[in-house]
Amino acid sequence: MTNISISEIIIIISVYFSSTIPWALIIGKIRLKDDIRNYGDNNPGAVNVFRAGSILWGFISAFLEISKSAIPIIVAIQIFNISEITMLACVLTALLGHGYSPLLNFKGGKSLAVTAGSWLAITGGEAFYIIAPSLLIMKIIQKNDALTSTIGFASLFFYILIRNPTTFSTESLLIGILLNLIFIIFKHRNDYVLKINFRSFANNG
Each residue's pLDDT tens digit in the chain (205 positions)? Predict the structure, then answer.
């Protein structure tokens, strides 16, 4: 059985509390004087800052939302050389912290930004080159955001099967990705009932 050190426990707790901070919501209220939950899917995510009408603050919000999981996990890996079980715990606590933030009465977003942050940190940035093109392709050909998010992130699973850019075992990474994917599917569960709505050029093709 793997023993977790006190420092690793502190790291896991730090990742959790960092991920609970609703940066997009804070920026919406301070800079836009608006509640971004009144837009789009009514979640406190960075996408709704864009929908509220600010491209600049939307990008800043996205950066902060991604960073709140990425930075502590990068520190944990690079400085503390965390174990695989701690890495998995960090992924899960980031999801829970954002998805069920105690600062929002245990309501939160769909955890896409912290998912991106966690796996960018774990893979040394390589996840970007896999997930981003997958998201873009799905977004171009159809309009269901739930499907875009699910397939976009699932592409990382197949990439890790082929190439593991980390010091962690492939098995532990795949477990982490599967758990993360289940969480994303659960968070988007109400959106899957929407039909696949292909864009006009895709239908014509």
Answer: 467 899 999 999 999 999 999 999 999 999 999 999 999 889 999 999 999 999 999 999 999 999 999 999 999 999 999 999 999 999 999 999 999 999 999 999 999 999 999 999 999 999 999 999 999 999 999 988 889 999 999 999 999 999 999 999 999 999 999 999 999 999 998 888 777 778 776 565 5
Q: Output the pTM of the full model.
A: 0.92
**175: amino acid identity, one letter:** I
Report which of 28, 114, 14, 25 is spatially closest to residue 63, judged by C-alpha positions. 114
Q: What are phi and psi of 43, to 5 degrees?
A: -100, 160
